[in-house]
Design brief:
Elements lengths: L42 E9 L2 E13 L1 H4 L6 E12 L6 E2 L5 E3 L2 E7 L6 E9 L3 E9 L4 H7 L7 E7 L4 E6 L6 E8 L5 E6 L3 E4 L7 E10 L2 E2 L3 E6 L12 E5 L4 E6 L9 E8 L6 E2 L3 E4 L6 E6 L7 E10 L2 E2 L3 E6 L11 E9 L2 E7 L6 E8 L6 E6 L3 E4 L7 E10 L2 E2 L3 E2 L3 E2 L14 E4 L4 E6 L6 E8 L5 E6 L6 E6 L7 E9 L10 E4 L12 E5 L2 E5 L8 E8 L7 E5 L3 E4 L7 E10 L2 E2 L6 E4 L9 E8 L2 E7 L9 E9 L7 E6 L7 E5 L9 E8 L9 E3 L19 H38 L4 H8 L5
Antiparallel strand pairs: 1-2, 2-6, 3-4, 3-7, 5-6, 7-8, 9-10, 10-13, 11-12, 11-14, 14-15, 14-16, 17-18, 18-22, 19-20, 19-21, 19-23, 23-24, 23-25, 26-27, 27-30, 28-29, 28-31, 31-32, 31-33, 31-34, 35-36, 36-39, 37-38, 37-40, 40-41, 42-43, 43-46, 44-45, 44-47, 47-48, 47-49, 50-51, 51-54, 52-53, ...
Protein name: Fibronectin type-III domain-containing protein
Keywords: Membrane, Repeat, Signal, Transmembrane, Transmembrane helix
InterPro entries: ECM_Regulatory_Proteins, FN3_dom, FN3_sf, Ig-like_fold
Length: 789
């Protein structure tokens, strides 16, 4: 600030008994201080300069003049050279002393003080003597006009005290404004980058967006008056990290048996974070057990933090939670899981293995579990065997082993699997497996191989069993067969059950037989295979109400049926559909088309042979009349063409029946023509009046391969190809009604023709009369008597 050049801020002076705005603090005793009205002998103004006869005020300088002899009651009581000028600007609450020295000019003295032209100033004179006396000068100086300030060349002081309220992507900046500054230039950039952003504003605050989280920025501010800039004010601010900043941290855990080395990247999205909270909790089915939370600090300049967690348990699952710590911000944690290592399998051993025979073919085992074991392998060895045979696996510390041959001495062994490696086996004492009547017998190591009409059985024989009863039942348990099997001394029994139905579920019981004892057996179930699929039987194809209806009998084991269909016009190409039903219908069949159908059986992707093809000839639709066209008529000859309708277009004619008359009111003549006699389909009729306007022709056709006659079509205009009104056959009950309608239509048509001719004759007469002007009344009478009238 420019006051720094002329004013020294010495602190606040204790001032008492002050009278403001011209009031005088009067001294006691003989020194009575300033006179009443003393302020009239003092002036306060901007310094004036006279240049080339023009007086201008220098608004950056204030001049205060006073005349001590005229202003003090007894000026000799005071030390005038100690007089001090005090000031107070509109920005100040207290009086401040100036360092300006007064200069004498005759009986007057003056002070010249630097001021800021945009502020108001008040001044006060203090004089020391036996007691201090104070005079408040009433004149308020400033502010100067904007024009004066601009001309003065005054340079404002820089802003100060930048404060920032930041988020992850924005910041709100505010600062102490500069005296006299009209606006502010601010530019800022990411520290370490040369990309700047600029703003010019009038307020002393600015909200900035589109910032990078967790980033340091440097801001430079300048105050402006016109084109004059203050000195730079530089300050830094930093944005906060994102709330999910930890989601991008790459965490690495290297576990040992009782510790873990944890490291994570402390840069990128968390570069501004220096402290982290690390929590490790063991995972259990009931409740997490957590270690004491530790605070880990980032070392300066190191992008990766490494921390070692001690006191962990071997082969234990843990959850690791790392939470970044940042002032006034709650940042989401990042969690990962890890498992500490297990002890070497060679150092672990199972203890207290107990084996107990609990039922026929079953032995119960229990042992002391091994810490860190993921599973246990169970092996057995009969007394006459030299090698262990693995039979079961479990993740528990007990198991019931089945498929044990009764009446046989066994040993059992259990080993633990730790990190994929197997511990040393714990071996049980010798145990004799039971064969008791209280529990159902299960044939040891029973294996069933299914076929379509038999099943092959295989199981281990117990020496104490003399024979077996093989009982096979269908799933309903109503149709059962039994047979007795006497072992041949082999340890493995092979037996086949025959005469079974394919694709049928059966239950099997293998019951031991020992004299004097009664045993039961636990049932086993099997299903015979499908065998070779058979084609459906009783396959039929019938035409019902214009639809092709297919039916066939069910085939055992069938999972579906494939229907093949083709027509006589697609050169044997087949298409097919698959269904689970025993019938199928096909609609929208084309008349006079022959359709062929066949069915095969599907059994789990296998297909049987197809049935014999069944054919259906679709009859024509007799209710639709054919299309009758008059190709040509002249004199007593007429050529017509009679063709099937569009729907019956596949049908061929065998015979044509034509009825014709030169006058619709007279009886029709009928003629039947074989289609073979008209190979080009043009039928020639010769009758008197074939070319007359009243001529009418009707026709129908009998379709080939059927006895079906079509409806009757009629036509009377050459080239007429439309399907016209239906004239039924001679046997129809509608014949009288239709003939009457035709006669009425012809009469109306004749009347219309006569009326047209009459009007034409009348017009000819009027023209002739106008030309000659001599027509007589007799001629008029004759015209009126004309038959057409």
């Amino acid at each position: 600030m420019y006051f720094a050049k002329s004013i020294s801020f010495l602190g606040l002076l204790a001032v008492s008994d002050v009278l403001f705005m011209g009031n005088v603090v009067r001294a006691q005793n003989d020194c009575q201080g300033f006179k009443v009205g003393a302020e009239e002998h003092a002036t306060v103004q901007y310094k004036e300069q006279n240049r080339r006869g023009v007086t201008k005020q220098e608004v950056t300088k204030a001049e205060i003049k006073w005349t001590p002899q005229a202003m003090l009651e007894d000026w000799s009581c005071y030390e005038l050279e100690t007089a001090t000028l005090m000031y107070k600007s509109s920005n100040d609450d207290d009086w401040q002393p100036t360092e300006a020295s007064q200069r004498s000019a005759g009986q007057s003295s003056k002070w010249s003080v630097d001021v800021k032209p945009c502020l108001e100033y008040q001044f006060q004179i203090r004089v020391m003597g036996k007691i201090e006396t104070i005079l408040d000068l009433p004149t308020v100086l400033g502010p100067a006009s904007e024009e004066q300030i601009a001309e003065s060349g005054f340079i404002p002081g820089p802003p100060s005290d930048l404060e920032s309220v930041v988020g992850a992507y924005n910041a709100k900046l505010s600062w102490t404004p500069s005296d006299c500054g009209k606006k502010y230039d601010i530019n800022f950039h990411e520290v370490g980058s040369d990309e700047y952003r600029y703003e010019t504003i009038k307020e002393n605050n600015l909200e900035i967006g589109d910032l990078k989280p967790c980033t340091n920025y440097e801001a430079t501010l300048n105050a402006l008056i016109g084109d004059d800039y203050s000195e730079d004010y530089v300050s830094n601010f930093a944005t906060k990290p994102r709330l999910d900043a930890a989601s991008e941290m790459a965490i690495t855990v290297t576990p040992e048996m009782d510790s873990a080395v944890i490291s994570w990247e402390a840069w990128k999205s968390v570069s501004c974070i220096d402290e982290y909270e690390v929590t490790i909790c063991s995972v259990s089915s009931s409740q997490d057990e957590c270690k004491t939370t530790e605070i880990v600090k980032k070392a300066p300049g190191v992008p990766t933090i490494t921390h070692t967690a001690l006191g962990l348990n071997p082969c234990t699952d843990y959850n690791l939670k790392i939470t970044p710590l940042y002032t006034d911000t709650v940042i989401e944690s990042k969690m990962v899981s890890f498992k500490t290592q297990s002890p070497p399998a060679a150092t672990l051993q199972i203890g207290n293995l107990m084996a107990d025979s609990v039922s026929s073919g079953s032995v119960y085992l229990k042992w002391d579990g091994v810490n860190c074991a993921t599973s246990y392998k169970i092996s057995r060895k009969a007394s006459d065997e030299s090698e262990w045979k693995e039979v079961e696996s479990t993740d528990q510390d007990e198991i019931t082993v089945s498929d044990i041959t009764p009446c046989t001495q066994f040993q059992f062994a259990v080993s633990a699997v730790v990190d994929g490696l197997e511990t040393e086996k714990a071996i049980s004492d010798q145990i004799m497996s039971d064969l008791d009547e209280n529990h159902p017998f299960e044939a040891p190591n029973l294996d069933i191989q299914n076929a379509d009409r038999e099943a092959s059985l295989k199981w281990n024989h117990a020496d104490c069993i003399e024979s077996y009863v093989i009982k096979v039942c269908q799933s309903s348990y109503t149709d059962c067969t039994e047979e007795t099997l006497i072992p041949d001394g082999e340890k493995t029994i092979l037996h086949s059950v025959r005469n079974l139905e394919p694709c049928t579920q059966y239950s099997l019981e293998i019951i031991p037989a020992i004299p004097g004892k009664m045993f039961t057996a636990r049932p086993s179930e099997f299903t015979t295979t499908n065998g070779v699929p058979q084609a459906p039987t009783e396959f039929s194809a019938e035409l019902v109400d214009g639809k092709a209806v297919l039916n066939w009998e069910a085939i055992q084991c069938a999972t579906g049926y494939k229907i093949y269909h083709k027509t006589n016009d697609n050169e044997g190409q087949e298409s097919s559909t698959v269904t689970k039903n025993l019938s199928e219908e096909y609609e929208d069949l084309t008349p006079c088309q022959t359709y062929y159908y066949s069915v095969s059986t599907m059994v789990d992707g296998q297909e049987s042979d197809k049935t014999e093809w069944q054919s259906l000839l679709i009859p024509p639709i007799s209710e639709l009349p054919p299309v009758l066209k008059i190709v040509h008529n002249e004199g007593d000859n007429i050529t017509i063409r009679l063709e099937p309708s569009e729907i019956n277009s596949m049908c061929q004619a065998a015979e044509y029946e034509l009825s014709y008359s030169k006058n619709g009111n007279k009886p029709y003549k009928t003629k039947v023509i074989s289609a073979s006699d008209v190979p080009n389909r043009d039928i020639l009729l010769a009758f008197k009046g074939a070319s007359s306007e009243t001529m009418i022709v009707q026709g129908r056709m009998r379709y080939e391969d059927t006895s079906v006659w079509s409806e009757v079509a009629s036509s009377r205009e050459p080239g007429d190809m439309s399907e016209m009104q239906h004239i039924p056959s001679q046997t129809s009950t509608m014949v009288p009604i239709i003939i009457g309608a035709i006669v009425a239509f012809v009469i109306i048509l004749i009347i219309i023709v006569f009326i047209v001719k009459k009007r034409r004759n009348r017009n000819n007469y009027d023209a002739e009369k106008a030309e000659n002007g001599k027509q007589s009344s007799d001629e008029t009478r004759k015209l009126n008597d004309h038959p057409d009238a």
